[in-house]
Amino acid sequence: MNLKTGAIVLFALTYILLLVFPRKKSFIAAGSALVFIATGIVPYYELPNVIDWNVILMIAGTMGIVSLFIESRMPALIGDWIVKKTPNIKWVIILLSVIAGLISAFVDNVATVLIIAPIAINLFKRLKIEIIPIAIIAISLMSNLQGAATMVGDTTSIMLAGRMGMNFIDFFAYQGKMGMFWVVQISSAAAVVILFMLLKKYDKRVDVVPEKAVINSFFPTFLLIGLILALIAASFIPEGSKPGILNGLICAGLMIVGFIHEAVTKKGLKHFVDNAKEIDWQTLLLLTGMFVVVGGIVQAGVIDDISNFFLSFGGSNLFVIYSLIVWFSVLVSAFVDNIPYVATMLPVVAALSAAMGLNSPILYFGLLSGATLGGNLTPIGASANITALGLLRKEGRDVSAKDFMKASVPFTLTAVTVGYVLIWLIWA
Fold first, then answer.
1. What is the distance of C-alpha 17 from the center of its chain?
2. What is the C-alpha to C-alpha distance for residues 262 and 69, in angstroms, rounded to an integer?
3. DSSP code of 44?
4. Greater confidence, 153 or 370?
5. Is 82 within 8 Å of 95 (Cβ atoms)?
6. What DSSP line would sit under 55-83, residue for residue?
7. Average pLDDT value over all residues in the chain
8. Please, are residues 192 and 141 in contact by the beta-carbon 8 Å criterion?
9. If pLDDT is split at 50, 70 and 90, which confidence band does 300 have?
10. In degrees rounded to 5, what are phi and psi of residue 247?
């Protein structure tokens, strides 16, 4: 068995095991990663390149800050406000999802889930309502959807902007036409309609929270606001002028500041240790393992082969090529991390656009739309989904792939279809 065949077999086996044994995901991913390393598919010296330490540090740091945020009782106060503004549970979930989407247009979607999902979980507990998995899933789906709205919303957007020389404003209006921001907002509105349909049974009236939340510290809130502002500011620094793990260092650094402040004000190192325990280490292990697994199939040239086949299949018909890029990207990103996929496909799209004499960004925008939203199809297609399910697991609510996809498939297909039609109508 050659290297490429071995990588394909291991990759397929990993995903089958992840779907069959959802409670053992972190150990399956870690075990598969070790096999990829032991067999030489991913040489040990390539680990710093295949593992996205920026994402790992960012998730760990945000988890720590969010744990302090929850402990401060601020999420409970926000929950009180939401209850006052909404008539029933359905509207609570919709409002939280929309807020998550708006934040995710400017902040990484994983960080957004870690900020908004705990507010929902805390609110359900205070209302004495069993935690509703679809609420957390909806927050994750909407966060992923809005990642394509601006240049700073997702790593794939940053990569595309760098390739095309786009700036922040170009996502709102480009070449005198509607930019991706508005395409995503219209797609988002269509997806909200789907959420309404999925949530129709959650029409129980929301009772007023009996006990008004009392904030015990505003420091975690300032820390969280500072985190969001720092991430936005960092996104405007040119890629070549900043460390690749800058966002992760920001999140981890502010988390340590928060932990130290907590230990000093409460006069005890025990609080530092207790806060560190709140980080979901299993989710971090899962993501680290998956970075190695995906890196393995990239190293083996599997994605390159797929891209070459894709090039030979499309011919010179713009509609066929555009359609293939969108829907193939949706399919691949449902199972493969979209960062290496987009990194591979950007040169392909550039070559296609040049060969066809296109002055339009239609193929680029089709790639961004399909690759960003495709991760919503499956529970393992996006880091935000893995994080959201990790939060649910921590609360004793394991969600199967089947249950996740009952919500994710109609949501994703609706959003992608609307974006697919709009991009074609605007840019063809």
1. 22
2. 11
3. G
4. 370
5. yes
6. HHHHHHHHHHHHHHHHHTTHHHHHHHHHH
7. 84
8. no
9. confident
10. -60, -40
